[in-house]
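DUF4360 domain-containing protein: C-alpha cells wanted.
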Amino acid sequence: MTAAAVTGCLVALSPSAGATSSAAAAPPGRVAVDVASVNGSGCRPGSAAVAVAADNSAFTVTYSEYMASAGGGVAATEGRKNCLLSLLVHVPQGYTYAVSHVDYRGYGKLEPGATGTQKASYYFQGMSQTANRTHQFHGELNDNWQVTDTTGIEALVFAPCGEQRNFNINTELRADVGTSDKNKTSYMTVDSTDGSINSVYHFSWKQCPVRR
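Answer:
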C-alpha cells in the first residue's frame, strides 16, 4: 500500500553552546540508547522498543500498543492516547548530538468525515520543550501514513558537551468521529503487528571542543 505522507518543521530553540559550528560525521564506536522511563496511555512499560542503526545515523522506536480510536461504541477515553518517552543516549567521548529530523509511521482507518491527529515535541532534560508539531489526517483513509518533522541546521538543539541529559519525546495520537457515522469505528495507530513500522529519529553530530 502507498504511504500517505505529510512533512512539517520542528520549532526549536537556539543551538546549545560548546560544540563546533560545522557538522561532523557519525562517531566511531558504539552509540547506545536506553529507555529511562515510559509513561502514558499509549505506551505502557514494555510496549516501546528502541534500537540504534549500525552506522550511528539514527535510532528507531517501535510501539506495539499505540492506538487511538473513536466511534462504534468505543469509550471516549480511547480517542486520545499519549506517550512520554525518556531516553538515555550514550555517545562516544568528544561528541554531542541533536535530532535533525524524525519520521513517524503508522496506519490509519478513518471513516468519511472522521479525523486523526498526530503531535510531537522534544526536549533535553532541564531545557525548554519545543512547540508541538501537529499533523492532521481526514477520512476517508484506509492506508499507511507517514509524517516527517525536520529542523534546519541553524536551529538544531544539541545536548550540552560533557553532560548526560535524558532526551525526552512527548507524542500524542487522536481519533475523532467528526461528521462520520458514529456507529462505525475510526482509528489511528503508531504501531505494527509485525514490528516493521517504527519511528525513526535521525542524529546530527558535532565534535566537542578539546578541554585543556
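Confidence is low (pLDDT under 50) at residues 1-22. The radius of gyration is 18 Å.

Cheers.
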